[in-house]
Amino acid sequence: MPEGNPVYILGAGGHAKVVASTLLAAGYRGAGFFDDDAGKWGQTVLGLPVLGDLRQALRIEGGMAAVIGIGNNKRRREIATTYTNIKWISIVHPRAYVHPTVRLGRGTVIFAGAVIQPDARIGEHCIVNTLASVDHDCNIGAFVHIAPGAHLAGNVLVGESVLIGLGSSVIPHVSIGARTVVGAGSAVVGNLPPDVTATGVPARILKIRQHA
What is the mean pLDDT of residues 48-56? Predict the structure, then answer.
């Protein structure tokens, strides 16, 4: 059972609800949510209060423990680089399997049913979503979201802020460049450059994304 201070969640939408359920299932005490949507203030989500906007988090002393409950990779990166006074924690659902040799970056959340195999590396503030899998020796950059039911075979290299879409798959020894989006249900059978959207079976580049 984890010990220490209760954990705050930044964001209070649908993704944050699943983060909260993961946090509670893992034995942490939830402190509440921060969200910029004023309509949510004063409400409760899974029994935890929505305390105010994200700026309120800056006013809490002592390096509070928190995790980001926002699925958008760019927004997670913005928050993580802005709120430097926060102690970011990683959370693993008790029904996920993470091999002891796996390295998890701070702020990463592993949801129920996920599997991460030996010697994989997962960067900071990543999401390995429900029933997703990351096989042996993969190297996953920071702020990556591996969506529900997506599967990465062994020795896959994924750059920062990539989205691996719902139910997609990636064959061994493939690299995916930073900020690329892999569409839902796609099969990645070759390397993908940074800043593109690729979809289909096999996945083909549909457009080049402007890097902001």
Answer: 92
Q: Does domain 91-200 have CATH number 2.160.10.10?
A: yes
Backbone angles phi, psi at 185, to 5 degrees: 75, 10
- Cβ atoms of residues 124 and 89 within 8 Å: no
| Confidence (pTM) | 0.94
**Selection from 161, 144, 64 nearest residue 104 by Cα:** 144
Torsion over CA: 209, 137, 103, 149 (sign)? positive
Q: Which two tokens stand for residue 160?
A: 């920062």
Q: Which residues are catalytic?
A: 136
The pLDDT mean for the chain works out to 94
Going by C-beta distance under 8 Å and a sequence separation of 6 or more, which residues neighbour residue 57? 8, 10, 34, 64, 66, 83, 86
Q: Which of 67, 63, 52 lies closest to 15, judged by CA?
A: 67
Q: Class of the 7-88 domain?
A: alpha beta
Per the listing, tokens 């450059």 go with 193
